[in-house]
Design brief:
globular; mainly alpha
Length: about 425
């Protein structure tokens, strides 16, 4: 088995661990709210405390991985967030929970940009979409598995024990990663490394040449960030409020909630795998504009319709079907979006993807707060879904204006 495929397998496992640790608090949401006596508005702040630090640290963590190597940085950040996953089980009230979740987000901030940096160094241009698709699909599989892990543990020994258990998983992954992984400049000669690697400047040159002036003045950069801001406004509903919405807003009990949460995440996993293969295949056959832009924009538009219908049509089965479709369809675009960071960011893909994800998590932060406030003021859990549908439409429009043939950072800027 080629080294790059083993590395991809490890990134896939990391994607699962990342979302197991992230989604567990959402699955345990109603129990934590009852135990710590938190209101919907306060719970919105708890969800957004993680999103705030997670979003703010995307660019620094991506840049750290590009500069110091992904072996060191990924090991350090996984150990960090695993510790604070366990500490979540020690929270005694709103204040401590806010601090712990903020610190947890600092560690998880580096997962996606550093994984993208690894993929950009080990995979050819025609493979990056599939590689991103598998990593993101694994994250959704982690989300699908979470209720099957967390709910039985909660019902047996309480919600706190679930955080202790999941915190240990990341420690195991970090040990294996440190033992096995070597940065791309230490690859085995038998491995066929991405042809794009042959054009990557020396590591010292990359470290000193990040052209921020060119990045910040580039229209493409702001379109990507804007597109991801509005997309993530929708996706963070599934990562934060979704289990609570299904339980308190649509009347699913704990046993029903296991499958009601898992199936949409499985749909998202399928969407990511299909989207990864589609973006690479369409790019090879019709060009990068179709393979990246057309796929991404149309997926977002269709998912917005599904989100609207989920809010509009009453009943358990209707909301389950349309939210499952929404999650699966809008994640068809996710490999395209992250592959764009490699297409447009070149060897600074970790930094560009970190910036894009920062914008997305600002959107997620806004979603977490506004969702809680709207529910608190109106008592209606469906009202925020109309808002999310509108955000997805805006994201689709912005995606349509991105030109994937014009890099943000050209080789001449080095």
């Amino acid at each position: 088995m080629k080294r790059k495929n083993i590395i991809l397998t490890m990134l896939v496992i990391l994607g699962m661990v990342t979302f197991l640790d992230r989604i567990n608090i959402s699955v345990a949401g109603s129990s934590i709210m009852a135990d710590l006596k938190l209101s919907p508005a306060e719970w919105g702040w708890v969800q957004s405390a993680f999103i705030l630090s997670y979003g703010l640290l995307q660019i620094p963590m991506g840049a750290l991985g590009d500069r110091f190597g992904h072996r060191k940085i990924l090991t350090a950040i996984v150990l960090w967030w695993s510790a604070f996953t366990a500490f979540t089980g020690l929270a005694g009230g709103l204040a401590s929970l806010l601090i712990i979740r903020f610190m947890f987000g600092i560690g998880e901030a580096g997962s996606s940009p550093c994984s993208t940096g690894v993929i950009s160094r080990w995979f050819e241009k025609g493979e990056v979409g599939k590689a991103q698709g598998y990593v993101w699909a694994a994250s959704r599989m982690g989300g699908a598995l979470t209720p099957f892990v967390v709910i039985p543990v909660m019902m047996w020994v309480g919600w706190r024990a679930a955080f202790y258990l999941l915190g240990a998983l990341g420690v195991v992954w970090a040990i294996v990663w440190w033992w096995y992984y070597r940065d791309a400049n230490a690859f085995d000669s038998s491995d066929k490394i991405s042809t794009s690697l042959t054009s990557i400047p020396s590591e010292e040159k990359v470290k000193d040449s990040l052209p921020w002036a060119s990045i910040l003045s580039n229209r493409q950069f702001w379109l990507i960030c804007g597109m991801y801001f509005f997309y993530a406004f929708g996706s963070w509903f599934f990562f934060s409020w979704f289990p609570t919405y299904m339980e308190l807003g649509r009347g699913f009990d704990k046993t029903e909630l296991t499958y009601a949460v898992a199936v949409p995440f499985i749909m998202s996993m399928i969407g990511n795998i299909a989207g990864g293969h589609l973006t690479d295949r369409l790019t090879q056959r019709f060009g990068i504009k179709v393979g990246r832009k057309a796929l991404g924009s149309s997926s977002l538009a269709i998912s917005a319709i599904c989100m609207f219908l989920a809010a509009f049509i009453p009943g358990k089965m209707a909301v389950f079907i349309f939210l499952s479709l929404c999650f699966g369809i809008f994640d068809l675009m996710l490999p395209s979006a992250w592959a764009l960071c490699i297409d447009l960011g070149k060897h600074h893909a970790g930094t560009i993807s970190g910036a894009m994800n920062t914008a997305g998590n600002i959107g997620g932060f806004c979603c977490g707060i506004l969702f809680g406030q709207l529910v608190q003021q109106s008592g209606n859990y469906n009202l925020p879904l109309y808002m999310i549908a509108g955000m997805l439409i805006i994201s689709a429009i912005l995606f349509a204006f991105i030109n994937p043939e014009k890099p943000i950072i050209s080789d001449k800027s080095l």
